[in-house]
Write a structure and sequence with these properties.
The complex is a heterotrimer.
Chain A (H helix, E strand, L loop, with lengths): L15 H17 L5 H25 L7 H17 L5 H22 L5 H21 L1 H4 L12 E2 L2 E2 L3 H22 L3 H11 L1 H6 L4 H27 L9 H14 L4 H17 L6 H16 L3 H10 L26 E12 L2 E12 L3 E5 L6 H8 L7 E6 L2 E2 L5 H6 L2 E3 L12 H9 L10 H14 L15 H14 L4 E5 L7 H16 L3 E5 L3 H7 L2 E6 L2 E6 L1 H6 L1 H8 L3 H4 L1
Parallel strand pairs in A: 5-10, 5-11, 8-9, 9-10
Antiparallel strand pairs in A: 1-2, 3-4, 3-6, 6-7, 11-12
Helix pairs in contact in A: 1-7, 2-3, 2-7, 2-8, 2-10, 2-11, 2-12, 3-4, 3-10, 4-10, 7-10, 8-10, 8-17, 11-12, 11-14, 12-14, 17-18, 17-19, 18-19
Chain B lengths: L1 H7 L4 H11 L5 E8 L6 H20 L7 E8 L4 H12 L4 E5 L4 H14 L3 E3 L14 E3 L4 H15 L5 E6 L2 H16 L6 E5 L7 H9 L4 E5 L3 H13 L6 E3 L6 H7 L7 E4 L7 H13 L9 H16 L4 H9 L4 E3 L2 E3 L10 E8 L2 E9 L3
Parallel strand pairs in B: 1-2, 1-3, 3-4, 4-5, 6-7, 6-8, 8-9, 9-10
Antiparallel strand pairs in B: 10-13, 11-12, 13-14
Helix pairs in contact in B: 2-3, 3-12, 4-5, 6-7, 9-10, 12-13
Chain C lengths: L1 H31 L6 H18 L4 H24 L7 H23 L14 E4 L2 E4 H23 L1 H11 L1 H6 L4 H27 L7 H14 L4 H21 L5 H15 L14
Antiparallel strand pairs in C: 1-2
Helix pairs in contact in C: 1-5, 1-8, 1-9, 1-10, 2-3, 2-4, 2-8, 2-9, 3-8, 5-6, 5-8, 6-8, 9-10, 9-11, 10-11
The chains are: A alpha/beta, B alpha/beta, C mainly alpha.
């Protein structure tokens, strides 16, 4: 039985009946609303805000980037429609498209600002953007009508059908909301969606898995802005009147709160949060002025007691026990190879230096790793081993020196391009994507650009399962990776690297934190890999492990290479013994 | 009778008036919907206006109510925002029992709710002073304050004719109220052959007005006219004007003489002029209203009478029409001529504008002193 | 020339306000790694306490000020307990959001309890200011500049010259190591919150006579102070001061020579420019994460 059990991943039509059903429900719901008045307004607000808040799920929930500007994008869409239709007599949908396009472009720009800036910086960038937009909308009276706002925004015709009636237009909004929610929900299990989550959970690891972190963040911001503007455009038609204060900083906070309350990791959570916060003012009307204070307090309480929002809270309790994957899976293609040591140098490092201020962590290191070998890099604590691997994988820029990989100079390449060239790694302090399942973690690895795998979801799942099978973790494929033991997370990390079929694997202290049994198993695993011809550079303290697997050993101390050669020669080298026994080098020399 | 007894119990009156209004059975009252800023930036002003409205309602009920029924207020918070007022009004509009509405004093809010008002088709009394509000074909909007074309004409008239000033600096908020006033003032001055030496906008809620004050100074103006929306802004500007040595006459829109501004800016406003649609000692009606208000609210002096007048005018129109039917009430309101209200004498025109003049008042050491009333025919 | 000097003075005065509020930010960033979006509300509360003690209860001015500051310090601990402590191990984002929630809560709670009417309070000096050549120097702006300078000096002395300061510094640099050394890390962080809240209160008390006291008193100022923080260099004390002053001057000159209505946009444009061109700010270190 070699048919893999890709389960839900391989059916692209999945969700279509569900989508149709949801659209039908939305249409029925819209018929049940009154044709005008307050209730309709509430529905309209919930539907259009819902769309924008689902947009936040993409950027904040999936990609983990804070955005306090969703109301600004919402406003761009709204002004696109309002000004386009009222002042420039454009068709509603043309005006909407223009608004959405402008918002999308600005979203991409904000995303680009996230290149170097995380957390509070990004929060501040988005707040600035929000504030500037408000100031411009208020003061550019000739264009935006200023604080008076735009009145009499028309509603569109669709396929010859006038949507001027309240119920009809609400139908349009609800159907759009459902489609956007389903699309965003589907996005989670696409390649881009996984890349976003990987960036969210650990952007360094993501970059070394071949994910272009910047592009992913930019895409998340762009998508989120587009969705936000779509909601805003529909909002303008829904209320027929817009003014700058509807798109202020305070509204961005409201949207953020909606997303967090419902649960930012799922579009359905976002919709629940939106619905609640649109209706809540109604329920809490007896509170009058205290309402906003209660609102603020609620934000704190949600953060403390419902970190994953209402949806997360419910989903956590309803989560079925992860089904173990029991069926057999195909072998890793790697296993079809037989190992053969060659003289070809895969990784050639010359004169590599990395200085942190006055500290010379690496001081002119040369290493040549031959294809098909297991090359060990050892040295006492602080000798520069981890710095070396971080420079080679592109996380640090070298101060001097040159790195050649598979016949290419990769010294200037960013981490994800090095991975695409065939360089995969694991980390000393495990960096798995904690918000994802074991299988999804490994799928991110399998999606390495340049991997020899079918590009469809099915092929990726097969490959990921094969890699998991190889490290003995197949049964746990559907578990959340955070629930695994430390040692097993290490295997997931290795499987993630293997699933991409790398030219070379860099293992940064793989035995760290493992017990004796686990260390032995690891040793066996490395030997198996070597048997199939994978080139490996391993860093470790554990001499036992190194002696078991290494063909070649390089020893670093104080950032310099002090020995290089076959295992026995190196391990008997007096400098090495001195370094490890901690004797002063001058005496040993 | 009820009224005198209650006014004796001054402190409890606000509460008891609520009780009286609330006690009436739902189906035998005339319901008036009210959008009022209970929260947000204008909450303080809103409170005074709501108090005046409640007082007016009591007075109407004491005189027998409307077509023999008691008046009941249904109040919704507009949160001092445009979306807030749209939602508040739509909430009220959903109630078919409401016969008429009393809306906002903020033009931008009236602007926002205008399309919905047109759909509902019932009279809305409002206090926003943007002239265009009654000139856009909205037939259900009735203004209970003079509009800004008159405020600007009064400011221009007083500055040019009474104070004899020719070099004008205009400082106005960039919000709807400010820009409306500023445009009207530029127009009014141009009719007198004057081009202002400075027209300076600012956005609300500023920490500092030094650049604006210096611009006034550099322009070598001999009079400054202003349309400020928020009192703290006005007070900061007033103080910096004095500090930076600009000592020219200043005629401001009504906010300059509001008790809040005077309380904040203190001496910095001494000697300034303001126009006021409502002045406690302008006429008999305003004096009576101020006295009644003060009895209930600890001798507080109301800064506006428009909500009081709005209720009186609705009652008058409905009692004249002997009906609460919107179309009849509308005709009756438009037919009102020579009604003496707290804000002046109401003569409604076909647009729904009732008042055509302002009082000019002067701040003398923190006391607002009535100077003169300037009225236009059209 | 006179006009330019006057604008510079005002800009520096406004900038000193930003700097003062920014100072409160920096402390929390350094000690607890917390970006406190409720910092503006510290200032608002301080100002309201002064209104209550001085205007309403008619306590002597200095007693009212000291009492307000003391209460603010205590409040800082309560604030930490509600917004920071339960979330301290969950990364930066949850704390950011809970402080945003706290700021909404505080602003509206005061609105409910006190009402929306703006209040006027007296400044430190009776004289409105002094005229130096063409420049009028507002006494309250002068007070703010002097007190901001004194606070920076005080902070320097505390951090560099006292044992408490050394412990605080150790805590901010490496919490684990600090606790291994027997420093009560939790207490150190609470002290920082108290201090930051007190500084915020002082800022509020000082700006109240200029801007009057209302619930929206400091929210925009706090945003700009945070911007000043980033412009100056995230977590740097001299950076916060210089960033604040620079922001005040740019804003005031921009308003005078470019556009008054767009004044608020200048601060944020300046911030965006800095973030894109020099994200580490004037005094900051390069941001990077260790693999």
């Amino acid at each position: 039985m070699s048919t893999p059990p890709p389960g839900s991943f391989a059916r692209p039509w999945r969700g279509i009946p569900g989508l149709l059903a949801a659209v039908a429900v939305a249409l029925v719901l819209s018929r049940m609303a009154p044709d005008q008045g307050y209730i309709l307004n509430i529905f309209m607000q919930a539907a259009t805000y819902g769309i924008a808040v689902v947009g936040l799920v993409v950027v904040l929930g999936y990609c983990g980037q804070i955005s306090i500007a969703q109301a600004a994008f919402f406003g761009l869409g709204a002004y696109g429609v309002a000004l386009g239709t009222v002042d420039y007599d454009l068709n509603f949908f043309v005006a909407l498209a223009i608004g959405v396009a402008i918002a999308g472009a600005l979203g991409l720009l904000l995303g680009a600002a996230s290149l170097k800036l995380g957390g509070h910086y990004l929060a501040m960038v988005t707040i600035s953007f929000q504030q500037i937009l408000t100031v411009v909308l208020t003061n550019w009276i000739g264009f935006s009508h200023g604080p008076d706002g735009v009145r009499n925004v028309p509603r569109p015709m669709l396929f010859g059908l006038s949507l001027d009636g309240g119920r009809d237009y609400l139908g349009l909004c609800l159907v759009t909301m459902v489609c956007v929610a389903v699309a965003v929900w589907r996005l989670r299990t696409t390649r881009l969606g996984r890349a976003m989550q990987a960036v969210r959970d650990n952007d360094l690891a993501a970059s070394t898995c071949g994910i272009d972190v910047l592009h992913t963040k930019v895409a998340a911001f762009g998508l989120s802005a587009v969705v936000g503007a779509l909601g805003g455009g529909l909002f303008a038609g829904g209320f027929r009147y817009i003014s700058p204060d509807q798109f202020s900083f305070a509204e961005s906070i409201v949207m953020l709160t909606m997303a967090l309350l419902g649960g930012v990791s799922s579009p359905f959570g976002a919709l629940i949060g939106t619905g609640l916060l649109v209706i809540l003012p109604e329920w809490l009307r007896f509170l009058h002025q205290v309402y906003l204070a209660v609102y603020g307090a609620a934000v704190i309480l949600i953060m403390v007691f419902l970190p994953d929002g209402l949806w997360g809270f419910v989903a956590e309790r309803m989560r079925r026990r992860a089904r173990p994957v029991l069926a057999e899976v195909a072998n890793l293609p790697l296993l079809a190879r037989t190992g053969e040591e060659t003289a070809e140098i895969v990784l050639g490092v010359t004169g590599l230096a990395k200085h942190f201020g006055g500290l010379k962590a690496l001081d002119g290191v040369d290493i040549a790793v031959r294809r098909g070998t297991v090359h060990a890099l050892i040295g006492p604590n602080g000798s520069g081993k981890s710095t070396f691997i971080n420079v080679v994988t592109g996380l640090y820029r070298p101060t001097a020196g040159r790195i050649d990989f598979a016949g290419r100079d990769i010294t200037g390449l960013p981490p994800h391009l090095r991975n695409r060239a065939g360089l995969a790694r694991t980390f000393q302090n495990i960096r798995v994507f904690r918000g994802m399942t074991v299988l999804e973690n490994v799928m991110v690895g399998a999606e390495r650009v340049g991997n020899d795998v079918a590009e469809d979801a099915d092929g990726i799942v097969r490959r990921a399962l094969a890699a998991l099978d190889f490290v003995g973790m197949r049964a746990d494929a559907h578990r959340m990776v955070g629930t695994l033991s430390y040692g097993h997370q290490r295997y997931v990390e290795i499987a993630r690297a293997l699933a991409g079929t790398p030219e070379m694997l860099l293992l940064d202290e793989p035995a760290a934190g493992l017990n004796m049994t686990e260390k032995q198993a690891l040793g066996q695993l490395l030997r198996r890999l070597k048997g199939h011809g994978l080139t490996i550079l391993v860093i470790d303290h554990d001499m036992n492990l190194v002696e078991q697997v290494a063909d070649h050993i390089t020893v670093l101390n104080f950032g310099r290479r002090i020995a290089d050669g076959g295992p026995r020669d190196v391990l008997d080298h007096p400098d090495v013994i001195a370094a490890y026994l901690g004797e002063p080098r001058s005496e040993a020399a | 009778m009820t009224l005198t007894r209650r006014t004796a119990l001054a402190s409890a009156a606000a509460v008891s008036s609520f009780a009286i209004i609330g006690r009436a059975r739902a189906d035998d009252t005339v319901k008036i919907g009210v959008c009022s800023p209970l929260t947000g930036a204008a909450a303080e002003v809103g409170r005074i206006q709501l108090n005046s409205l409640k007082l007016s309602t009591e007075h109407v009920n004491a005189k027998g109510g409307i077509v023999g029924r008691k008046v009941e207020l249904i109040i919704e918070d507009d949160a001092t925002t445009n979306p807030g007022v749209v939602l508040a009004f739509s909430r009220l509009a959903a109630n078919p029992d409401i016969a008429a509405f009393i809306g906002s004093i903020r033009s931008t809010q009236v602007n926002a709710m205008a399309p919905d008002v047109a759909k509902v088709g019932k009279p809305v009394m409002f206090g926003g002073t943007d002239p265009t509000l009654t000139h856009n074909g909205y037939k259900w909007l009735f203004r209970c304050r003079p509009n800004d074309s008159f405020s600007a004409r009064v400011i221009a008239d007083y500055g040019v004719k009474t104070l004899n000033k020719k070099k004008w600096a205009i400082v106005a908020s960039t919000d709807a109220f400010g820009t409306g006033g500023q445009k009207a003032l530029v127009d009014a001055l141009s009719k007198a052959g004057i081009t202002p030496v400075l027209v300076q906008g600012y956005s609300n809620q500023q920490a500092d007005f030094t650049p604006v004050v210096l611009a006034v100074k550099q322009a070598e103006a001999d009079i400054v006219a202003s349309y400020f929306t928020f009192e703290p802004d006005l007070a900061v500007f007033a103080r910096q004007l004095v500090q930076l040595g600009v000592r020219i006459p200043w005629v401001g829109s009504p906010s300059i003489v509001s008790p809040v501004s005077v309380g904040l800016a203190k001496a910095a406003l001494n000697g300034t002029y303001g126009i006021a649609d409502f002045t406690p000692d302008a006429n008999d009606e305003s004096r009576a209203f101020t006295a009644a208000y003060g009895k209930i609210y600890n001798n507080a002096i109301p800064d506006s009478g428009w909500t009081y007048d709005a209720m009186q005018i609705l009652a008058l129109a409905m009692n004249t029409a002997k009906s609460t039917e919107p179309a009849k009430v509308r005709d009756a309101i438009l037919a009102i001529k020579g009604y003496k209200g707290t804000e002046g004498i109401y003569n409604y025109d076909q647009n729904g504008d009732g008042l055509r003049g302002y009082n000019v008042v002067k701040n003398e050491g923190g006391k607002i002193v009535y100077d003169k009333h300037i009225e236009f025919d059209a | 020339m006179g006009i330019l000097l006057q604008l510079l003075f005002t800009g520096l005065g406004i900038g000193a306000i930003y700097a003062l509020v920014a100072l409160g930010f920096v402390l929390l960033i350094r000690a607890a790694g917390v970006v406190n979006f409720g910092q503006g509300e510290f200032a608002m509360l301080g100002a309201y306490l002064l209104v209550i003690f001085f205007n309403l209860l008619a306590l002597p001015y200095w007693v009212a000020i000291l009492l307000s500051i003391a209460i603010m310090a205590a409040f800082g601990v309560v604030f930490a307990g509600a917004t920071y402590w339960p979330l301290r191990n969950r990364g930066g984002l949850p704390v950011i959001i809970s402080t945003i929630g706290a700021s909404i809560f505080l602003e509206n709670m005061v609105l409910v309890l006190y009402g929306p009417a703006a209040e006027q309070v007296d400044g430190l000096f009776d004289a409105p200011g002094i005229q130096v050549g063409p420049v009028f120097m507002d006494s309250q702006y002068l007070s703010i500049m002097v007190i901001a300078t004194l606070l920076v000096l005080l902070q320097y002395l505390i951090f560099e010259k006292t044992l408490l300061g050394k412990k605080l510094q150790a805590t901010s640099q490496d919490k684990e190591m600090a606790s291994l050394l027997g420093i009560p890390v939790a207490a150190m962080i609470l002290i920082t919150f108290a201090y930051s809240s007190a500084i915020g209160g002082i800022a509020g008390i000082l700006i109240a006579p200029i801007l009057f006291v209302s619930t929206g008193l400091a929210s925009i100022i706090a945003l700009k102070a945070f911007a000043a923080n980033i412009i100056g260099g995230y977590g740097s004390i001299p950076g916060a001061i210089l960033g604040g002053l620079a922001l005040g001057v740019v804003e005031t000159l921009g308003a005078a020579y470019i556009s008054v209505p767009y004044k608020d946009a200048f601060a944020f444009l300046m911030l965006l420019a800095f973030l894109l061109i020099r994200p580490q700010g004037l005094f900051g270190e390069k941001i990077s994460e260790k693999a």
